[in-house]
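Typical record is below.
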Amino acid sequence: ASRTELRTAPKVVKVSYVCQAFIFVRAEIGRGFDLLRIPSFAAIVLQGVFGSIPWNAMGFLTMYLLQCGHTSQAAAAVASSVLVGKAVGGFLGGVAGDAIAVRCPRHGRPCLAQVSVLGGIPFVIALVLSAPHLAAPKL
């Protein structure tokens, strides 16, 4: 090799942080779609999509309770207790999920997710049935 070839360093291609982030995100999206090929995981994700709809409706819980004839203090107490319950439940659910994943690595978390969804149904039913039934306003 000639002297000029030895003196020139190979060109280093610098990839910007934006390109690196794009490559990373694209790879992670691909991994996410790979996970969706697992039937039980796809079922849990689908349940989560439909399960999030009622939680969006719970944003109107205070207004619903006020329209049912509850006092402002009672409506605020119920709405606040729901928020506290979600916070405590999220923490305890994470702890329980970690504990059950150690004992049953393949089926622990999905079973716990099903139990938690089914366990919340009686509370929603109790909330709806405890509201006083008022006649609909005439238009």
Notes: The CA atoms of residues 43 and 49 lie 10 Å apart. DSSP finds six helices and no strands in the chain. The helical segments are 3-7, 17-35, 39-57, 61-67, 72-103, 108-130. The chain has one domain: 15-130.
